[in-house]
Amino acid sequence: MGALTTRYQVGGSISASTSIYVERQADKELIKALQAQEFCYVFNSRQMGKSSLLLKTKQDLQAQGVDCCFIDVSRIGSSDTTIEQWFGGIVYELCRGFDLLKDFDPLPWWRSLGGLPPAQKLSDFLEKILLPSRDSQMVIFLDEIDSVLSLNFSSDDFFSVIRFCFNQRAANPEFRRLQFALFGVALPTDLMSDKTRSPFNIGHAVGLQGFGEQQALALAAGLPFSEALNQALIRRALHWSGGQPFLTQKVCQLISNHSETPPKTEQACSDWLDTLLATEVLADWEGQDNPEHLRTIRDRVLLDETNSLQNLGLYQKVLEQQDTGVSVERVSGHERLYLTGLVEIHKGRIFPRNRLYTQVFDAQWVESHLAARRPYHKALRNWLDRGRSADALLSGEVLAQSVEWARGKSLADEDYQFLGASQDAEKRQVEALNLRLTEEISERKAAQQQLKTALAAVQEAQVEAERANKAKSEFMARVSHEVRTPLNAILGLSYLAQQNSSPATQSYLDKIHNSASYMLGMINDIVDFNQVEQGRLSLKSKPFSLDTLADKLVDVIGLRVQAKGLELKLNSPNQLLPNLIGDELRIEQVLINLLTNAIKATEHGQITLNIQVTEHSANQLLVQFSIIDTGPGLPTHIREALIHGNANELGMGLGLCQRLVALMHGEWQVRSDPEFGSSVGFTLPLTCAGEAPNIQAIDNLYYLAPLPNALLEKQIQLLGGKPVGSQTGAEDWIVFDGLLTPEQDLSKRGIPLLPAGVAQSRPLSEFNYPLQLHYPLSLSKLHKMLHSIENKSKPLQAVRSGQHWQALVAEDNDINQQVIEELLRRWGIEAHLCSDGQQALSAIQEQAFDLVLMDVDMPKLNGLQATQAIRALPQDSYRTIPIIAMTGHTQADDIHASLEAGMNAHVSKPIDPLLLKNTLEHWLDTSFDAQTQVEQDTSDWLSRLDGIDLSRSLERLANNRQLLGRLLRQFASNYNLSKDDQTQIISSANSSQHSWLHTLKGTSANVGLQAVSEQAQRLESKLQQSQLTESDWTPLWQSLERARTQILSLAPPLNEISDVPLASDAEQHLQRLIHLLDEDLGEAQQVLQQLPQIAQRDQIQSALDEFDVESAQVQASSWLAEIKDS
Questions:
Q1: Would you put residue 92 in left (φ > 0), alpha (ψ -120 to 50) or beta?
Q2: Span 111-131, pLDDT tens digits
Q3: Domains of the chain by range and CATH?
């Protein structure tokens, strides 16, 4: 050995020739095992002196004549190296280490073996190249063997080659000359998992221990102080390093570097060194750890994703028991923790490696890193702190997530115990739940059996109840039918009487008609009562007038109020309102019920019907309806039930009212006081169906004060009425109180006012007044009635001058065109027809019209688009002309869409003539007188048609049977569909199908073919819901064909019912007749006899017989228009 050096070396290999090299037991053990031809491996933590041991052993063997080769495995390759390159690199390093390269080129030889596996090539090299190259013993030292773990292929074949060399010794003694010694930081199981091929189970493991005191004292020679101080400092250094070679060398180096301030005495050495280590190592150890040592240990513990938790958990336990140590038999994973360098194993127990490590990697450091890694760390600590209580275990989703996180990781024993106990507890809980579930199933089966028995009893009772309900329904249907029949007669007769009645009886007939209409509505409610009880009552939303509703209510209850000696008052808006959308019948039904109850409960005083608009937005009104009486008030339970919706606590009438208001999204308001009476009402949100008409003042209107009440006086003033004064003349109309005005003040041009339900007095009956007003009444009714009497005093300008109202009718169906044209003609309106929205837009810019009737579903431009285009035209007249929707779309959304597009009103198809007439009168601000009937088709073939609503279709055509027959023939011709036609319709686009069905629905309804219309409506609904199939069309084709077959088989040939020819000068005679009806009725009679004797002439004659000159003029003008159009 050469001269010793006293320089301390921290890191790397220490030469055996230096004084700082400390020989240990491993030096002797390793060289002895290699001399015995054993396979050896030294696996330990880093910085324990493995490299120095390798170097010293290699030098000792070479001194004994053994050929040695040192290979740093980490030099050969990394994760990017292929298996061919790596095994080839081993061969090359062997050639270099044993000095074979001057006589042997490994590269051509390697390639010459072609596709042999790399491990086999290495075996061939050892056997055929290396062993024959010399006769001496050979040892191959492989350092950094753990670097094979970073390769992207398995290294099992390499270690099996080492095993092969030892196995071959029996067959080939030459292999006894070849030994291997492996050095690294790994476990044998990490390097090779296949025990049958592993060399480690036949090799010799050499352990490296730290310095003992005697061994370490050799290092004292390098310290700069006295021998006594140096030895004292070495002993204190071992106290901190525990003999760890690297750390001991580092402490010695630290002492040497701080020799300028030596300790004074041996006793002071400990404090001096402790202070030095505290300031130079422990304080900010990560910043002062140079060369790296502590950081290497830290990374070894923390950066191993798979095993870090197990290492930390076991080390935590070692720290807790560092005085006694932890038995290796009671824990798992201690080998891997040992490789980190933190611990040492002594006599089967695990202890911290040294005091310095326990200061740096203390319990707090371990706890913080465990908490950062374990998702369940707090729960685990809680479980341990509570003595492993079952209440602290994981369960449910948290347990499942924790088990999933732990999958594939090596954990500490406490982790496995905690997770295992949690799983066991949850398993027991599931078993308990399953047991409880089994018991519940048994209990449920028993309960189901009991329920089955009870249901059988309920079903029996239900069958009995259904029998009773069926009997009730049959009784109600029978009663409703029996009552409905005479009511229809009353309605029909009162309507006919209204058409030609004296002013004295007109009011009575109105009341009869309104009361009978209400009774009919109530009978219909009786039929629908089952639906109410079962919650299946549906509302019908359509336009109605709030004022008309108020007047109907007054007519229905006026007589009853008057008969009981009470006063009836009406508080309604003092302005004309737009039509509203809602279920008028249901609102009327509720108010009649409340009014009836109020009349019953009130013995003296008054009944007030209050209708007010409380909120008014662009298209929405909030209307408050209330009935105020002077009776004794409502019982408390009735008030509470109405407000809180407890319909079951009310009688049938109020209970039905409560449900109806709730269906209409209304809210109840109830106030009651025994001294002042009660107020019962509700508010409803209602949508506007157009714009409100303007109030037009009436010329020459006066009133004789005092009038019966201030509200009526204010209404008359709003219509232009002024108090009677000296300025009144013979042409003026005077409104007066029909009960209190003295007989001498009665005027022939007066308009008497009478309370609702009161007959006229004797003096009044002596005057043939054209109009009597029964109050209370709405502003709208008062406005209309006073305007009608004003019109009666004026000539019929439109008829006498030959002028007509001009209406543009946009309708794409020719049958519907004829229907609407006929209706308009009867009211003195000339119809200009077009077939689509584009034509309508062009026509209205070429000619002035008084109004527009607009279908919605039309080609090119639909009705909504055409209306928007008209409203966008620059002239003001296009923004004010009334446009009325005329369509089969009747839902509230459809009405809203029409109004949004700019239309003023909405009339649904099939056309209701009375509704259309009222709508036209409203928007033309006029009143159409009743017209005489047109020529009749004398044949009775229409009556023999099955499935036709004859009365309804004739009503739409002003009872013109001849026109209906012509329309039916035209319908049969238009819808003569072949199979190909049907197939084409079915296969067309959805929009085309919808247009075709919508047109058929309206057309067939207009001519009374209700079955066809209903089938078309059913298919249209299915199409909108995307549920229409090809088979759904069959019933429609069948209904359509049945209707066509009937029409074509029953209708007579056209020449049998052709119009009676007019005389050649009929047009001239009619023009003269119209003129003479104003001048000379006698001569007019003579001219009338010159006209053909057909129905039109008979109707004019009937009107003249009753001195109804105005009707005769209208009929003559209508006849003249027919001739001009023909």
A1: alpha
A2: 999 989 999 999 999 999 999
A3: 25-205 (3.40.50.300), 284-373 (no CATH), 544-688 (3.30.565.10), 701-792 (3.40.50), 802-931 (3.40.50.2300), 939-1058 (1.20.120), 1066-1125 (no CATH)
